[in-house]
Amino acid sequence: MARLPQVGGDAGNWGALLNDFLLQSHTEEGDLKTDSVGAPQIQPASVTNAAIAFETITENKLSSAVQAKLNTTAPVTSVASKTGDVSLSKGDVGLANVDDTSDVNKPISTATQNALNAKADASTLSSALATKVNTASVGSANGVASLDGNGLLPDAQVPTRLSTNSLNSTIATQTTPTYSATSDVTGSISLASYTKSSVIQYRLTGNITITTLPPSPIIGHTLTLVLTQDATGSRTLTLPGTVKKAYGLAPTLSTSANALDMLHLFWDGVSWHVFVAGLAMS
Predict the structure, then answer these.
(1) 0.90 exceeded by the pTM?
(2) Segment 60-116, tens digit of pLDDT
(3) Where are the alpha helices (DSSP H) in 118-205?
(4) CB neighbours (10 Å) of residue 230?
(5) Could you please report the per-residue DSSP string of 260-279?
(6) Which of 24, 25, 114, 228 is deepest in the core (most CB within 10 A)?
(7) 115-154 pLDDT, tens per residue?
(8) How far apart are the C-alpha atoms of 76 and 55, rounded to whole Å?
């Protein structure tokens, strides 16, 4: 049986023993003999792609099980339920609705077309708008007004009630105060009817309370109260709580018999204010 020479022994036979041992797995040229290396001699992970020469492993070197797997195939017997010399159409592969159409010629969906059909046609819209304004009625009675180059209404088209004279007359009417004759009053008093600036004269025969002031006054609306005590005197005045007062204090009337006091009620666009014009005037 071939063996390696033993250290300390086999004197004179070392060469023969070593050659005999090597020839068990090598050729005389020094190459490994076929089938000299088996699975027991190969360490795990020692064989890599780089270690195996290209096309050195042939089918007959593989196990029968591996060969059987490699040689087993599932031949195509039909395509899209067709056999033989098969020719496919787009419908055979689920693409019946696909067309090779350029972007500009691609159709739109029925839903989109229906939505577009419900929109106003441009030409129809232009014709409809043209009938809305009769240019012949511009600037005429019962017609429509036009604007000048500055975007203003021409004087000739300004209604008479808005003319300068009419407006001046209206302003004069609203701003010229009215005067009321002196009347005896006591108890609750309403000033709602004084829709223009007014001078109101009262002789107090008892304590009075002003309950209501003019509604919707214009800025600058003024009510001048001329209040005279009767022969008894010491009559008092109570104003609505919403009236603004100097330092938050209501004016106190003179108490002497026949004393004359004067107050102003003024609307600033937000609130009524009361001012004392004079007390115990003589």
Answers:
(1) no
(2) 778 888 888 878 877 777 888 888 888 888 888 888 877 778 878 888 888 998 888
(3) 122-130, 164-175
(4) 16
(5) EEEEEEEE-SS-EEEEEEEE
(6) 228
(7) 888 887 777 776 766 666 666 666 677 777 777 788 787 7
(8) 29
